Amino acid sequence: MKMAVIYHSVTGNTKNMGDLIVKGMNSVAGVEAQAFPIEGVDVEFVKEAKCVVFGSPIYAAHITGQMMNYLLSDAGKLHLAGKLVGAYATAQYVHGGAELGIREMLDHAMVMGALTYSGGGSFGKPFIHLGPVGIDNTMDINQFADNFEIYGSRMAQKAMELFAK
Ligand SMILES: Cc1cc2nc3c(=O)[nH]c(=O)nc-3n(C[C@H](O)[C@H](O)[C@H](O)COP(=O)(O)O)c2cc1C
Q1: What are the extents of the domains in the chain?
Q2: What is the value of pTM for the model shown?
Q3: Whose Cα sits closest to atom 22 in ligand 1?
Q4: Which residues of the chain have pLDDT under 70?
Q5: 48, 78, 131, 160: which has the highest count of C-beta atoms within 10 A?
Q6: Ligand 1 proximity of 116 Cβ (cutoff 6 Å)
């Protein structure tokens, strides 16, 4: 089953965390997951994917303008309706707005008809309420790596449960 992570990243944090989500997805048997920057999305691959996760850095407590433009202008081509969709963010500060950005991406996916999901607290620890967040600069972002990988495996498990024949 194909799954995709689509991210915007300027200095690499969001790319690196997206790669960890893909690693977690690919740890689930039967999953073929790939990550794509918004500048180079394989639309045919994503159209076939059953699970899509969007990732953005946080700028001024929002997703980046580039990610918002991507969602508004290009996400319609991805056929998100009925897919399982999640979101993650990277930011500089714990109080810098990451969960607001996650909500922006999840809300957009809902408008496109997607089924939004994170697993929340249903898997126990680590609790990932809306989607994983990586904090850089004020903390070492690598200390959040496990959360991203675990989140990827949870998203993939749920997609397999829902869509595997
Ligand atoms: C213009 C700009 C605005 C930013 N605004 C915020 C912010 O409001 N809150 C926050 O926590 N981090 C903020 N950051 C930090 C980035 O979200 C953080 O460094 C992120 O991990 C960068 O992702 P990337 O390496 O994938 O580009 C800002 C960074 C830039 C360049």
Answers
A1: 2-163
A2: 0.98
A3: 57
A4: none
A5: 131
A6: no
